[in-house]
Amino acid sequence: MITTDLPAQLSLRPARFPADFAAVAAVMTAADARSPTTPELLTARHVAADPALKVSEWVAEVGGQMVGAGGIGQQDAQEHQDVFWLRIWVAATWQRRGIGQALLAALEHDVLTLGGRFAKGGVRQDVPGAVALAEGAGYGRAWTRYESKLEVTPERDFSAFGPLLERLDGEGVVFRSVAELEGDPERDRQLWELDWQLLSDVPMGMA
Length: 207
Known about the structure:
The chain is α+β, with helices and mostly antiparallel strands. 33% of the residues lie in helices and 17% in strands. It is built from 6 helices and 6 strands; from the N terminus they run ββααβββαβααα. Strand 1 (2-3) and strand 2 form a beta hairpin. Helix 1 (21-31) crosses helix 2 (39-48). The two termini are 38 Å apart. 19% of the residues are buried.
């Protein structure tokens, strides 16, 4: 166990799964409420993970309360084996207190221990503390990804999509919710295929 006195009673330890799934999910959601995470989602990710890839995951606690989490791991065959992806989450009310720095130190140590030479990760520019942590640790920007979102509200006028919906209806296209397809044994596989195709078409940033 690694301990530090900033803040008082802060302690770091390796994550224990599945016991820590619920607490880690809560921390990830508290770090970024715009991207909520559930224990079920974390469980599914860990079950689907390639056991051949090297990983290390840590959590930060203050007085027994989990306030941060982080992990490093090899990605897949597309990356060289000495490249590790790094992720850190600190609950919003606990940010800017040195917790991220403590997690980063533990994870960077494990990158080297596991034979890695490079660590990379993503930082939201609208989270000043995350940017400061990365820059302060010597990380540089490799590329930037721009995100666009459409807020869907009952008041929004979607009449412009009328002709498109009429054409799709004429072509036999039917829209169904994921819940409606719960009994379809092919649902999850088809969703995975759709997600992969859509992700492959997303501009991933600029070098």
